[in-house]
Amino acid sequence: MSQPAGQLTFVGPRRAKPARHLADLSMADRRAAVTELGEKAFRADQLSRHYFERLTTDVSAMTDLPAAARERLSALLPDLLTPVKELATDGGTTRKTLWRLFDGALVESVLMRYPDRVTMCVSSQAGCGMNCPFCATGQAGLTRNMSTAEIVEQVVSGARALAAGEVPGGPGRVSNVVFMGMGEPLANYKQVIGAVRRMVEPSPHGLGISARGVTVSTVGLVPAIGKLADEGLPVTLALSLHAPDDELRDTLVPINTRWKVAEVLDAAWSYAARTKRRVSIEYALIKDINDQEWRADLLGKMVKNKLVHVNLIPLNPTPGSKWTASRPEDERAFVRRLEFHGVPVTVRDTRGREIDGACGQLAAAE
Ligand code: SAH
């Protein structure tokens, strides 16, 4: 299935919702849910510690709960993600998992272990409606939004594998989460914010990951960027720019037909001012499409002297696409032009290309 060029989809087809899970709920709502199940409210705290600290959903192992309570409370820990396939590379330190959701929808997450950190790349939607022509996810269209708990479960599963010592390098923890898997996180705003809260709040509320370690990446939904700035969550904002001029960006990132480069950059600067967080500008370098020196120059002028970091990503190949990564000399020239303007820039060392687990390659095929 593929979408007509430039078509944007904000709302997927109507679908049944996944079962309610502990991770969907704030602590107050968990207490209410536990009471509804006929248990004392403090059981919500116990259950939450099992889930967010010990990373367990097996109620039979929860020996601090009476047997009858275990049975009733298990209703708040339904299985939401079923692993279908796991692929690893980089000596087992990059692992992509394909998950089946309750209704058959497929999503992927990627765990990347580095010497000093572990990053989980998570999906926020099954498919994506933003239709960027160089991204494999965009080609399949939007299946549906994921629930808060479906998003959180991807991180919990990675955390569990790390805690169990299943990832080479010894037992570890998830330090970073990037919303750079499938989907446009700001098009599923409410569920994504819920998931971010579960990630950053300390136990028993959530996983206790530093908000600075969480990155929300967006094509540039301007009103939602404004809302995000007001949440009081100092997460890193990544803006997928990919072109400094409207003419080209209209075709590479079709949302640009609604909110132009100048508007989306303004939203990014407001976000930086509000949160004091450096905004990351994502720019996939595509050979002879967006990698000309004059475009680097234009980009440099537009972002210089801002609280910004430019992340250049060598384009990862996707099925059926005629585009490829830039020549090394063009990439170097692009970097040099940005440096000339004093703009902090790095070229992302993309991981997982061999397992179709790198940026823009997640298409969730079995
Ligand atoms: N919808 C969000 C998040 C998912 S994509 C967004 O667009 O930001 C995560 C990053 O990978 C984005 O910056 C996206 O533009 C980039 N990307 C997509 N396809 C790519 C490809 N084929 N090669 C390199 N980066 C790609």
Description:
This protein is α/β, with parallel strands linked by helices and 366 residues long. Helix content is 31%, strand content 18%. The protein is built from 11 helices and 12 strands. Strands 1-2-3-4-7-8-9-10-11-12 form a 10-stranded mixed β-sheet, covered by helices on one side. A hairpin with a 4-residue loop joins β3 and β4 (118-121). The model has no long low-confidence stretch (mean pLDDT 95). Bound molecules: S-adenosyl-L-homocysteine. Its main location: cytoplasm. Residues 114-353 form the Radical SAM core domain. It is found in: Cytoplasm. One of its GO terms (biological process) is methylation.
Low-confidence stretches: none
* Arithmetic mean pLDDT: 95
Q: Distance N terminus to C terminus?
A: 15 Å
* Helix content percent band: 25-40%
| Helix/strand order, N-terminal first | HHHEEEEEHEHEHEHEHHEHEHE
Structural Rg: 21 Å
Number of strands: 12
How many helices? The count is 11
**Shape category:** globular
Bound molecules: S-adenosyl-L-homocysteine
Largest sheet: spatial strand order: 1-2-3-4-7-8-9-10-11-12
Q: How does the helix and strand content classify structurally?
A: alpha/beta
Oligomer state of the chains in this structure: single chain
